[in-house]
């Protein structure tokens, strides 16, 4: 794995932070992003960069850095995401816009900008949620969040079709993890480190491109 570069968005806390540390332990070079550009990880193979998925200028500047340096990515983990309406019963305009700006528009235009910097055979992972599964949905809450992850799953399928034979692509559910994504996530079943471990195992495997994977059950998820 030495000399492989993994790019992890949203690495300042939660699942992304744990993933960045795990990849470093496994000998990867890691670029992690946060809006501030500050990430509390000190390691010679780690670089923190600023990226705000809601700002097209930020995406452009980020991509320019990869162009200028001629960097090639072996694994892209689109992990950054928000859930301001998690647990709420009805959609609300501001949180709806924020959710779609980050989880959908930001993910799409960031990926479109950066994908040309992936090495042939690279892996591209979108961190989704089983809350975005249409088939499994029995709830009525978290309207924007659920819809945004369903949209991200569709984008994953589109990418799979477009890059068949070039990249190995998947969308995944990382488990219910104790992070700061919603008001009270303290009952989550996994620590960020446990989730990162499950994600790492999956991404390291020779998975079938185009799948929606649940790392919690270690099996394919219904769409
Ligand atoms: N926790 C769970 O139980 C759970 C379950 C299913 C799916 N997920 C998914 O897992 C992923 C990680 O979630 P988490 O629970 O680890 O959340 P988290 O602890 O809140 O971390 C979210 C990360 O996203 C970054 N971020 C937020 N807004 C951003 C923006 N506008 N542009 C770029 N980056 C931004 C944050 O960085 P800064 O704020 O520093 O910029 C932070 O590093 C998300 O996609 C989430 O939907 C989580």
Task: Outline the structure in words.
This protein has 223 residues and is of the alpha/beta class. Strand 6, helix 5 and strand 7 form a beta-alpha-beta unit. It has an 8-stranded mixed β-sheet with strand order 3-2-1-4-5-6-7-8, with helices on both faces. The chain is globular and about 45 Å long. Helix 1 (14-25) packs across helix 5 and helix 3 (93-114) packs parallel to helix 4 (143-162). 36% of the residues lie in helices and 19% in strands. The site of NADP nicotinamide-adenine-dinucleotide phosphate has 32 residues, from helix 1.
**What proportion strand?**
15-25%
Which runs of at least 5 residues are low in confidence (pLDDT < 50)? none
Work out the helicity level. Answer: 25-40%
> How many strand elements?
8
Strand order across the biggest sheet? 3-2-1-4-5-6-7-8
Oligomer: single chain
Which molecules other than protein and nucleic acid are bound?
NADP nicotinamide-adenine-dinucleotide phosphate
Structural class: alpha/beta
Give a short summary of the structure.
The chain is 36% helix and 19% strand. By secondary structure, the chain is α/β, with parallel strands linked by helices.
Blueprint of the fold:
Blueprint: E1 5-8, H1 14-25, E2 29-34, E3 46-50, H2 56-69, E4 73-78, H3 93-114, E5 118-127, H4 143-162, E6 168-173, H5 192-204, E7 211-214, E8 219-220
Parallel strand pairs: 1-2, 1-4, 2-3, 4-5, 5-6, 6-7
Antiparallel strand pairs: 7-8
Helix pairs in contact: 1-5, 2-3, 3-4
The structure holds NADP nicotinamide-adenine-dinucleotide phosphate.
């Amino acid at each position: 794995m030495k000399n492989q570069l993994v790019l992890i968005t949203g690495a300042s806390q939660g699942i992304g932070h744990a993933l960045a540390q795990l990849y470093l332990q496994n000998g990867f070079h890691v670029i992690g992003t946060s809006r501030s550009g500050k990430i509390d990880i000190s390691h010679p193979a780690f670089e923190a960069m600023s990226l705000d998925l809601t700002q097209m200028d930020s995406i452009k500047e980020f991509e320019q850095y990869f162009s200028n340096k001629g960097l090639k990515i072996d694994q892209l983990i689109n992990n950054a995401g928000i859930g301001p309406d998690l647990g709420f019963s009805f959609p609300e305009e501001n949180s709806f816009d924020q959710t779609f700006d980050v989880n959908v528009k930001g993910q799409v235009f960031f990926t479109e900008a950066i994908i040309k910097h992936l090495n042939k055979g690279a892996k591209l992972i979108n961190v989704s949620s089983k809350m975005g599964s249409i088939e499994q949905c029995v709830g009525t809450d978290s309207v924007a969040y659920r819809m945004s992850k369903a949209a991200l799953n569709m984008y994953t399928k589109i990418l799979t079709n477009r890059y068949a034979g070039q990249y190995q692509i998947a969308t995944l559910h990382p488990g219910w993890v104790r992070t700061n994504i919603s008001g009270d996530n303290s009952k989550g079943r996994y620590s960020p480190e446990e989730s990162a471990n499950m994600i790492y195992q999956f991404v390291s495997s020779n998975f079938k491109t185009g799948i929606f994977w649940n790392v919690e059950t270690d099996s394919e998820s219904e769409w």
